[in-house]
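Data card: per-record layout.
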Amino acid sequence: MTQAGENTLEAIAAAVARGYDGVELDVSRAGDGALVLWHDRTVDLGGRVLPLDQVPSHQLPQAPLLRDTIPLLVESGLRVNLDLKLRDPFDLALAAEALDLLAPLQGRCLVSSFDPRLLRHAARMAPTVPRGLAWAPDLPATLRSPAMWLWSRATGLHARHDAVSPSLVARARRYGLAVTAWNVHGPGPLSRLAALGVQAVIAEGL
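The structure for this 206-residue chain is written out next.
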């Protein structure tokens, strides 16, 4: 089966066809201010590599606008995790705009981010929408600490799968956070993660 590209409408349709519970979509701001499904900081325009914030959304035909994706997500019945990519450290409005567009998906959506400020802002804007704080062992210590988990007002910890350990899961549970594992490639790690008590995985190629 051909693998659909990440952050595409085809990937959402494939998730439905394969019976997945949900999808994770990366949300970034393009150069014209539009929210697009895009993971990287840069865009390759036929050999010219530019920062995403210098490229207007109409020059990103492979990157759907978030607002244009919502009807398909509503119809799909999938749970939706929007991973918010903050490129401008002062652009906390990104959370509010994404949450506003997510309104039709109330009850089956969540937001996640490596930036604790975005989650704290999201908690003020939409306290009933779950929030996952992304975690990896190579982050600065201050961003990995339980104190930051609390400050961010996260409701879950989204940890890189190879760093999930019994102690991390136990510590997250002490703070009332369920653990989701990300960057899972193939079915190999699933049994280990399940045994550790991981609630969900964000995977490719399953």
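Known properties of this structure: The chain has two domains: 1-128, 130-206. The two ends are 11 Å apart (CA to CA).

See the next section for split statistics.
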